[in-house]
């Protein structure tokens, strides 16, 4: 192979790599995930890195115990992060294929990623830790402590 021909082919490979990198950057920049609590009151959106981008609290949240709100936000955040990580893995698979580099990307996902075989089929119901009835109702009709 002539040196000029080799150099031209090498330049084409470099140009293709630059285009692929720009395309991956664009796709990863738009990647993210979203999840809603089982009761539909809380929705969380995260970016490709899993950082919180948006939090929506619907009116029914006002009646919830703060600990329950926090728990629902954290659970939805975890689901959204797994969804975002799943999208990142899809994008990277497109560009680098199934390789040690992809294994490294997967290993960097602290909560795993959607599609890794550990997805929960249905969200488990959150146990009710506190009786949230108004005090008058609670004392008029207390829960059975001993049964």
Automatic annotation (TrEMBL):
Coiled-coil ranges (or none): none
Gene Ontology molecular functions: DNA binding
Keyword DNA-binding set for record: yes
Record keywords: DNA-binding
Annotated stretches, region: Disordered: 109-147
Classification via Pfam families: YbaB_DNA_bd
InterPro entries to which the protein is assigned, alphabetical: YbaB-like_sf, YbaB/EbfC
Compositionally biased intervals (Basic and acidic residues): 126-136
Annotated protein name in UniProt: DNA-binding protein YbaB
Organism: Umezawaea tangerina
């Amino acid at each position: 192979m002539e040196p000029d021909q080799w150099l031209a082919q090498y330049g084409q490979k470099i140009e293709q790599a630059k285009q692929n990198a720009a395309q991956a950057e664009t796709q990863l920049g738009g990647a993210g995930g979203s999840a809603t609590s089982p009761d539909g009151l809380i929705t969380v959106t995260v970016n490709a890195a899993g950082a919180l981008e948006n939090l929506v609290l619907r009116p029914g949240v006002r009646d919830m115990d703060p600990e329950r709100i926090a728990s629902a936000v954290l659970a939805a955040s975890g689901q959204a992060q797994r969804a975002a990580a799943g999208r990142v893995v899809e994008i990277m698979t497109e560009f680098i294929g199934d390789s040690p580099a992809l294994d490294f990307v997967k290993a960097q996902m602290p909560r795993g990623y959607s599609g890794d075989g550990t997805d929960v089929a249905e969200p488990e119901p959150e146990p009710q830790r506190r009786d949230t009835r108004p005090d008058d109702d609670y004392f008029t009709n207390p829960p059975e402590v001993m049964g």
